[in-house]
UniProtKB/TrEMBL annotation:
The lineage of its organism: Bacteria, Pseudomonadati, Thermodesulfobacteriota, Desulfobacteria, Desulfobacterales. InterPro entries: Glutaredoxin, Thioredoxin-like_sf. PROSITE patterns: GLUTAREDOXIN_2. Pfam families: Glutaredoxin. SUPFAM superfamilies: Thioredoxin-like. This is Glutaredoxin domain-containing protein. Residues 1-45 form the Glutaredoxin domain. CDD domains: NrdH (cd02976).
Amino acid sequence: MAKEFLSKKGVDFKAFDVTRDPEALKEMKALSGARTVPVISVCGNVMIGFDAKRLEHDLKCLEQSSPL
């Protein structure tokens, strides 16, 4: 659901398969403290699981940020 949501919004994202990538699993656990997927990080906000309303809110940060 998260991938579909982000794709429909036109948001570029990088997905990792933590069942096949031990480094990605390690990073996910360090970031979230959990072994639950998805873990979504937007502008320093970490979401564990998928919440469309919260993700919509967090994505506003990307709209407001400007490239350096």
